[in-house]
Amino acid sequence: MRFIQQNLLSKIAISNGHGEEIPYFDGWKAYDSNPFHPINNPQGVIQMGLAENELCFDLIQEWILKNPGASICTAEGVNEFRDTALYQDYHGLPEFRNAIAKFMGKVRGDKVTFDPDRIVMSGGATGAHEMLAFCLADPGDAFLVPVPYYPGFDRDLRWRTGVQLLPVHCESTFKLTITALEAAYEKAQAANIKVKGLIITNPSNPLGTVLDRETLRSLVSFINAKNIHLVCDEIYAATVFSQPGFISISEILEEMECNRDLIHIVYSLSKDMGLPGFRVGIVYSYNDAVVNCARKMSSFGLVSTQTQHLIASMLSDDEFVERYILESAKRLATRHKDFTRGLAQVGIGCLKSSAGLFVWMDLRRLLKEKTIEAETELWRVIIDKVKLNVSPGSSFHCSEPGWFRVCFANMDNETMVVALQRIRKFVLETKEPEMPPKKRYCQGNLRQLSFKSRRCEDIMMAPSMMSPHSPIPQSPLVRATT
Ligand SMILES: Cc1ncc(COP(=O)(O)O)c(C=O)c1O
């Protein structure tokens, strides 16, 4: 059977390039076959592996009700139906590009402006990444990507383009350094691989951290010196909920001399507006040739005119946008605080972060040994017994075992409380594997953290000992343990 398929289908079709076999996607399957529901399936799997932002749907729904003309399937909007239903060209509606450009500026605190003529549409950031890979690289060429990185990149950038991704292994604090970049670049040179660019995600998925100004400037200098591209995925720009704030690459370009032809931004409304189903993605390139080529390619992944029409109206409403951005950050901050405090009450720390829809949870001390196999074993227990779909660090190519990405913004408060109760029960019932004391403990009040390679202040820990505000005050487990 396999032999027959191999002769019948293309190399892409029979290849494994989609990467669906990793635990990241396995976890989704476990959730799909047994999804949690508070009444119908209270023992089901809780989905904490999906970076969705559902905390502000009420604001969007309210706006839609107040603006019925923005939807063409309404009495108020039906006059727009004919023009919306017919073929569009690949430039997209001018009002859509104007509104996106303005929104991108607002999300960046109006410190920079974006030119609507540089905006190219794509089917989400997924389509934008592939489009850029097609524009910038040939099969066999490579991009450097700091680890840990979003697992979808292996599919989006590599599968159909034949491009390679070369991991850049950062220091133990997950901080990207030029030394690490140089090492990855040199390694590629030695292997005769042509490096065409560097891809960064800022704010980071999975870390939830942001790059500081100095690092961004050094990255721009690095890619200029090597004459390679810099692709900046900024799709979590408006998920920043505390300090340090977000600095866009577009701000850095205003401040320093560099070859702008090398700089490209990937953006989408999937995270900042919580609209992944709308598939609104864009490439913003400072390079005219890339804009032209990408625009032609965008025929393969246009945003439907109906969606463009709705989004153009919504994002042109300054009052709504400003309120949404502020309120979303506020709600994310509260959720992040409640969730991390709940984890801390059972001694689980997370990497310090100020953005994103997830935390980078530190379960290193629960590993039987410091290996990827032990991490996968622990992850299986979390999926099968604890019934939480979290994503193991190995899915993000993290080289240090024991880290897990846990999404917290795709559920209501009650579900988060159930998730915390399950984690609490699991941790209390799990015996910590024996390790030599010297290696297990940091100094001070971060006692439970292990491995001296990590700087203690990078991990948020143990506010349980500081905070009287438990997010799960009614939990019988809390009462039983305090
Ligand atoms: C860093 C990053 N880039 C791109 C994507 C894909 O986004 P979209 O839904 O807009 O295709 C994701 C989705 O999780 C992501 O985290």
Automatic annotation (TrEMBL):
Keyword Acetylation: no
Residues of the Aminotransferase class I/classII large domain: 46-423
Positions of region (Disordered): 463-482
Alphabetic keyword roster: Ethylene biosynthesis, Lyase, Pyridoxal phosphate, S-adenosyl-L-methionine
E.C. no: 4.4.1.14
Broadest EC class assigned to this enzyme: lyase
Signal peptide: none
Catalytic activity from the UniProt record: S-adenosyl-L-methionine = 1-aminocyclopropane-1-carboxylate + S-methyl-5'-thioadenosine + H(+)
Pathway: Alkene biosynthesis; ethylene biosynthesis via S-adenosyl-L-methionine; ethylene from S-adenosyl-L-methionine: step 1/2
Coiled coil residues, start to end: none
Classification via SUPFAM superfamilies: PLP-dependent transferases
Cofactor: pyridoxal 5'-phosphate
PROSITE patterns assigned to the protein according to its UniProt record, in alphabetical order: AA_TRANSFER_CLASS_1
One BP term from GO: ethylene biosynthetic process
Molecular functions per Gene Ontology: 1-aminocyclopropane-1-carboxylate synthase activity; pyridoxal phosphate binding; transaminase activity
Family named by the database record: Belongs to the class-I pyridoxal-phosphate-dependent aminotransferase family.
PANTHER family, sorted: 1-AMINOCYCLOPROPANE-1-CARBOXYLATE SYNTHASE 6, BIFUNCTIONAL ASPARTATE AMINOTRANSFERASE AND GLUTAMATE/ASPARTATE-PREPHENATE AMINOTRANSFERASE-RELATED
Protein name as catalogued: 1-aminocyclopropane-1-carboxylate synthase
Organism: Liquidambar formosana
Upper classification of the organism: Eukaryota, Viridiplantae, Streptophyta, Embryophyta, Tracheophyta
